[in-house]
Prior knowledge:
By secondary structure, the protein is α/β, with parallel strands linked by helices. The protein is 30% helix and 26% strand. It contains 10 helices and 20 strands. Strands 4, 5, 6, 7, 14, 15, 16, 17 and 18 form a 9-stranded mixed sheet that branches. A 6-stranded mixed sheet has the order 9-2-1-13-20-19, with helices on both faces. Strand 11 and strand 12 form a beta hairpin. The protein is globular and about 65 Å long. The two termini are 27 Å apart.
Amino acid sequence: MGQWGQQVIVIGGGVVGLTSAWWLLEAGFGVTVVERAPEVAMGASGANGGQLSYRYVSPLADAGVPLKAIEWLFQEHGPLRFKPEFDLRQWTWLASFLGQCTASANRRTTAKLLELGEWSRAGMKQLEHIVSPNDFAWRDAGKLVVYRSSKIFEQAAGKATAGEIWSGAECAQREPSLAAARSLLAGGIYNGGEAVADCYAFCVKLAERLRAHPRFKGFVQAEVERIASNGGRVVGLDTNVGAIGGDAFVLAAGIQSRNLAAQAGIKLPLYPLKGYSLTAPIRPGDTAPEISVTDFERKVLYARIGEQLRVAAMVDMVGEDVSLNPKRIGSLTRQVRETMPHAADYERISAWAGLRPATPNSAPIIGATPLSNLWLNVGHGPLGFTFAAGTARILADLMAGKQAPFALDMLALAR
């Protein structure tokens, strides 16, 4: 049994921090959430792709990816953009990433992420009793990954984890929003049970439930400037509004976790992968996708979230720059109009960019640190919404002195 009534400070008010707070409350801890923004979910949780892809968890690192990345860099509308930095952390992360770009490493990580995905799916089912799916536009739509290259499609279809195999014509027939791209598609792979939802709306509703919980101590809007430690443990947080104390501390602050951990002498293998999204209203008569669609070669994701089309794409390795790049937004808009020309009102598009805190092997980091009362729930990359419920459940169990539901050999800080 854990220390019932112990006071925990969760740093971060995104989907990972909020789900961590909820499960810690349910485990008997008192919880305070510290968030630097005036509202929850203002970072990477704000307007992300919205997919909950429990079965489609393929890590970015894989055999052949380095060569593909070089090709992408020279494509005008390629999914990758790289800006070299005078920052050793960028190059250290890249070296580790390249070390993961083997078929065997990809298989090992994928197996572990599938295990985490099923645990997360079960966690979200539990949260349906706390936050109604209707409150955050939950749709059990299934996921269709479409391929333009016959060779790549055949390779994907041959994997044991593949779902239903559809021809290009079947893709357009079963998902009419793809009709304009029918001649460009070699085929697709469909998996049922995958969902889409509004991550921001989910966070807002969960925050309301946190405020109503008898053990919740409240939200504190503050910029954490330093994690103060002494004698192998955290003694408090230095913030722009004063010191904050507690019995235990959870770092779940997205890419900001990297700098905060470093000040406490802990190196987190995180790098911000900048992604973009477009959101456009769906009008009566528009042919918006009913199924969640991923364009594999272009790395573009399409999801209907309520009465809006959400399109997410691209990986920019440009440091902690969250500005909207007009060229990238323009390129993505052109691709969307070409692939799904009648899916939404593209004259009323709103654009967004966010930093996805990724590890070299795409597996998040959960659990203990060298400081006895500092815990981690970081590094979810583009799958924060997907994995948040699962990693939060695991974290709460670990902090309560319970065993993890499965081996965390690839999910711990030491990996």
